[in-house]
């Protein structure tokens, strides 16, 4: 696998309960090792596409995809994204670590879910969000993201969004919202009203996290106000998905605020 420099990604924790860390050059103490993904089908609500790619149902019409990369000296590091059913097609939120993982997600949506990906969203410029973008281009799939994400990606020579917005946008059943800087200056959240699922990405920490991870690209001073805007805009959120670790409820926003304090 060809990886971007270590500085350009968010590194996560175990798929189950251990703390997470988003990093550009994270100390080893803040990144936990992953339990290996089982290389077998887990039934109709969970699919293992490869040793480093799995998908499981999170809510009606909403699937959590988990992609993993091996990084020395950390071991296996996982990250979360979504595939959301939208009529006869689907929407991809974040794209995996690289083009191979991105292609596996596209294939699964087309062949197993029977809803090919129509559009994608990337939630900020780090590798675990937009690493799979090159797999989308041959299919003409538009990639939505913040104008700032496109600017940063271009400046770093990374693949970036092809459809951009400044503050808010909608992509079919999804609302995209820039709450302000936090984990990164371009982090957005994604709201799916039909399911009550809010994808917070690396802007939100999972419940087992005991620290903010790496803050090299963060605006720690702005982060609390950005979280407050998110809570005010999406009071109906029932499920909150962090960039790494286990999904939870709205309490993850409060947990992230507590870590900032």
TrEMBL record:
Q: Does the keyword Hydrolase apply?
A: yes
Q: Which residues form the Metallo-beta-lactamase domain?
A: 78-244
Tell me where the signal peptide lies: 1-21
Q: InterPro entries under this entry? A: BlaB//VIM/IMP-1 (IPR058199), Metallo-B-lactamas (IPR001279), NDM-1-like (IPR050855), RibonucZ/Hydroxyglut_hydro (IPR036866)
Cellular location(s): Periplasm
* The reaction(s) this protein catalyses: a beta-lactam + H2O = a substituted beta-amino acid
User: What is an annotated GO biological process for this record, any one?
Assistant: antibiotic catabolic process
Q: Which Gene3D superfamilies match?
A: Ribonuclease Z/Hydroxyacylglutathione hydrolase-like (3.60.15.10)
Question: In which family does this protein belong, per the annotation?
Answer: Belongs to the metallo-beta-lactamase superfamily. Class-B beta-lactamase family.
* Subunit field text: Monomer.
Q: What is this protein called?
A: beta-lactamase
Taxonomic lineage of the native organism: Bacteria, Pseudomonadati, Myxococcota, Myxococcia, Myxococcales
């Amino acid at each position: 696998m060809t990886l971007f420099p270590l500085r350009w990604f968010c590194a996560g924790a175990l798929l189950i309960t251990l703390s997470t860390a988003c990093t550009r050059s994270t100390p080893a103490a803040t990144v936990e090792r992953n339990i290996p993904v089982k290389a077998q089908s887990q039934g109709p609500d969970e699919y293992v596409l490869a040793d480093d790619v799995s998908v499981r149902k999170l809510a009606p019409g909403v699937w959590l995809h988990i992609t993993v990369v091996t990084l020395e000296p950390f071991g296996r590091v996982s990250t979360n994204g979504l595939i959301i059913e939208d009529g006869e097609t689907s929407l991809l939120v974040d794209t995996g670590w690289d083009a191979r993982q991105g292609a596996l997600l596209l294939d699964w949506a087309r062949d197993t879910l029977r809803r090919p990906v129509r559009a994608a969203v990337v939630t900020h410029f780090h590798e675990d969000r937009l690493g799979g973008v090159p797999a989308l281009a041959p299919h003409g799939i538009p990639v939505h993201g913040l104008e700032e994400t496109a600017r940063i990606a271009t400046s770093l020579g990374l693949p970036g969004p092809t459809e951009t917005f400044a503050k808010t946008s909608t992509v079919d059943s999804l609302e995209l919202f820039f709450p302000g800087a936090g984990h990164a200056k371009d982090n957005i959240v994604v709201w799916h009203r039909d399911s009550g699922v809010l994808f917070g990405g690396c802007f939100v920490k999972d419940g087992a996290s005991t620290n903010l991870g790496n803050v090299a690209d963060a605006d720690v001073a702005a982060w609390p106000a950005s979280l407050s805007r998110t809570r005010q805009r999406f009071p109906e959120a029932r499920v909150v998905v962090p960039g790494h670790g286990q999904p939870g409820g709205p309490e993850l926003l409060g947990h992230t605020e507590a870590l900032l304090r």
